[in-house]
Design goal:
single chain, Glutaredoxin, 352 residues, binds zinc ion
């Protein structure tokens, strides 16, 4: 689907406010949108370190130990303040789903509309799901890869990352072993945070934003009723597979890249085995893992009308035993079993 078509689909699917925002974004106007995020995650991250600093000052550490820890905290604040100045454009979407932090207002609007597009596709699959806008997604759009790496401290191979968690503040606690850092949970608060960079025109990471956003939705969906502290991490294979599916949905070239990766595999591990995997596979298998996750999820999304219900149930499993149990329960609700032979046939046809 090209950009033109996506634009039209968004106009039809959007609320009046979104529609206005799309039209007005072209002229870089702001009405209908809140100018400032209610909670500013950039400032909050500095506040977290300042609270850490206060705790160090009040602790019974030796002057020397205090000095080192305080300097460390001070350096972090300097770095984060410098980072925050990179984001003069901070907007909230009218539906309060997203707070976007970017270098220009135009970029912020662009990703706000991208986010709306991914969300509308997401709820087309998971028809009972609604994003809890009580806890908006904070989206940090870095201008380039180098800036992203400088402030986010991630592996250089990473193009973007999403974090879903309860909002925690670090505090220092005196123990018999000395001073230890403890995470203090602020009840009733969730943090949905996504950071990535604007890819260059020829960059392969064009799909990263939609991919990472789908991770936030996946987590939110499986944890909507979870009490604080009892949240689950979505099933690794399907979490990545669905993220890949939403990341790739508008991009034929990205689809082909994943199919080409699968064609090179002579002895595939197979989706059922991958489903039970608790951690990411070794480096040599990672490409196969993502490509198979993509194709398997894509196949599952096609199984209307049960696709959403089945995928949601499977996002909560963490072992093959749980997968089998979930399958039994779904079958009792007249949801057909996942037919691995049918998937094998589909896979073979696509790989031809
Ligand atoms: Zn991912």
């Amino acid at each position: 689907m090209n950009r033109e078509m996506r634009f039209h689909i968004r106009l039809r699917a959007g609320t009046v406010c979104t529609l206005l925002a799309v039209a007005l974004a072209v002229f870089h106007s702001i009405p209908c949108l809140k100018a400032e995020p209610a909670m500013d995650v950039l400032e909050m991250e500095i506040q977290q370190i300042q609270e850490e600093r206060d705790a160090i000052e009040q602790s019974s550490l030796s002057a020397e130990e205090k000095g080192g820890a305080l300097q460390n905290a001070k350096d972090k604040v300097v770095l984060l303040s410098e980072r925050n100045r990179q984001f003069p454009a901070r907007i909230s979407s009218a539906n309060s789903f997203y707070h976007i932090y970017a270098t220009t207002t135009q970029t912020a609007y662009h990703y706000m509309h991208e986010a709306d597009h991914v969300y509308s596709e997401y709820v087309r699959l998971f028809t009972n799901y609604r994003f809890s806008n009580e806890y908006p997604a904070h989206i940090l759009v870095y201008p380039d890869h180098a800036t992203y790496l400088k402030y986010e401290k991630v592996n250089p191979a990473v193009a973007g990352h999403a974090m879903s968690d309860r909002l925690t503040f670090k505090k220092y606690v005196e123990t018999s072993k000395g001073l230890e850092v403890e995470e203090e949970l602020r009840p009733g608060t969730k943090l949905q945070r996504l950071a990535f960079y604007v890819p260059a025109a020829d960059d392969l990471n064009q799909t990263t934003f939609a991919h990472e956003l789908a991770h936030l939705f996946n987590w939110d969906m499986v944890n909507q009723d979870a009490p604080a502290g009892d949240e689950i991490t979505p099933n690794l294979f399907l979490n990545e597979g669905l993220a890949e599916y939403f990341g790739v949905m508008d991009d034929r070239k990205q689809h082909e890249l994943r199919i080409a990766a699968l064609r090179r595999i002579t002895k595939p591990v197979g989706p059922w085995e991958w489903l039970g995997l608790p951690t990411y596979p070794p480096y040599l298998k990672i490409r196969e893992f993502y490509a198979e996750a993509y194709l398997f999820s894509r196949w599952l999304t096609d199984q209307k009308p049960v696709a959403g219900e089945r995928l949601k149930a499977f996002l909560a499993i963490h072992s093959l035993e749980e997968a089998e149990e979930t399958m039994q329960q779904l079958t009792q609700r007249f949801v057909p079993r996942i037919d691995l032979n049918a998937y094998a046939a589909y896979r073979q046809k696509i790989l031809e």
